[in-house]
Amino acid sequence: MKQHYYYFLISGFLCFSCNETKQSDLPEIPVDIEQKTSLPLSEIAETITAIELELTDESPIKPGRNQIKRINVSDDLVFLAQNEKILVFNTNGKFARSIGSRGQGPGEYRNIRNFTIDETNKRLFVNAHQKIICYDFDGNVLAESSVFRLNTDGLMIDIIDINYTNNELLIIGFVMGREDAKGLFNYSAVYRLNEELQITDSCTIRNIYERPHAGFSTTEDYILIPDSTVYLYYPYTLNINYYPSSQTVLRDTLYRFEQKHLVPELKLKFKNDGIDGGGNLYISLYNVYRSSRYIFAEYANFLGAPPVISYVFCYDTKTGKGYNIRDGYTDDIHQIDQVKIRPFNTNPEMFYYWHTHMKPDDLEEPNPTLYIGTLKN
């Protein structure tokens, strides 16, 4: 989530004012890609709680990091979304119910990309690609909208991210293959939806003139809300092995909304801005997010590839120390290596990850254990 923000996009809608502020004197967080260090989670986490998720005939969770799309928690419930279902557990891990079902009919979804919750009104909003469904916490359908199937140009909008923040629903969408006098381009936008799940405002994040079928990645997007501040990072990464970009630039800046303006908050500083001697990006930055104290990122390093090496990065704003960690953190409390933590999109002072513990006598793989941590401040 990131870069040039906000212009009027769809005719008939009022664009809320979102102008990008200049990046002068922008704090830079150095990332030493030569550094290979470790970081026990006990050094940054105040607490980490383990929740063993119950396995029943109705609640099996497929293994693998990419099988779980997103997890959200309320005061007394845990919501876990996979491709084809949303499972609900209580905070002791006991299975409560599933929400929705696969299909093409009302209240049904083909597959799930991610979701967000409105804890105050006990609602859950599901991004099922070009379809948004609102359920209550008991699984009853409250509203549904297919407004993103086609825009005014007749092009389909791919819903990348969704979040309910400050009493409104925000959507990030991506459209490929729009055309103007300069040629074909791809654009990303933020949409504001009302209670009926209809678009009220929309503003452009970025227009990028590229080949219409260029490979791209928009993984691990976040809209984060510490203390009601909305932070936005949105990557755009061409597959540099197959499609050299005409705009060789690393999307390295985290933004925040301030009075409906997009303001650069900070940027990650890689060697030579992530560009190798041949003019190609050697860094693929998947995400940047922050709590009140820590700045986190996850990226891939293509230098010397193959193989591509995955890193996580953590910067402590209180001590000024950065940690560049290959493959993941170490949960020294529960003795688990190579942990990839994710923030809750409703509270980035908290994070989660999951791990499957296999016992010698297990005949089938159990449900993973969910670990929820609270960061130090």
How are the SSEs ordered, and which strands pair?
Layout: E1 28-30, E2 45-52, E3 68-73, E4 77-82, E5 86-90, E6 95-99, E7 101-102, E8 108-109, E9 114-118, E10 123-127, E11 132-136, E12 141-145, E13 158-165, E14 168-180, E15 183-193, E16 199-208, E17 216-217, E18 222-224, E19 231-233, E20 237-238, E21 253-258, E22 261-269, E23 283-290, E24 294-301, E25 309-316, E26 321-326, E27 329-331, E28 336-339, E29 342-344, E30 347-355, E31 369-375
Parallel strand pairs: 1-22, 7-8
Antiparallel strand pairs: 2-31, 3-4, 4-5, 5-6, 9-10, 10-11, 11-12, 13-14, 14-15, 15-16, 17-20, 18-19, 19-21, 21-22, 23-24, 24-25, 25-26, 27-28, 29-30, 30-31
Protein architecture, described:
By secondary structure, the chain is mainly β. It has a single domain, classed as Neuraminidase, CATH 2.120.10. Helix content is 0%, strand content 48%. It contains no helices and 31 strands. The protein has strands at residues 28-30, 45-52, 68-73, 77-82, 86-90, 95-99, 101-102, 108-109, 114-118, 123-127, 132-136, 141-145, 158-165, 168-180, 183-193, 199-208, 216-217, 222-224, 231-233, 237-238, 253-258, 261-269, 283-290, 294-301, 309-316, 321-326, 329-331, 336-339, 342-344, 347-355, 369-375. It is globular. The relative contact order is 0.19.
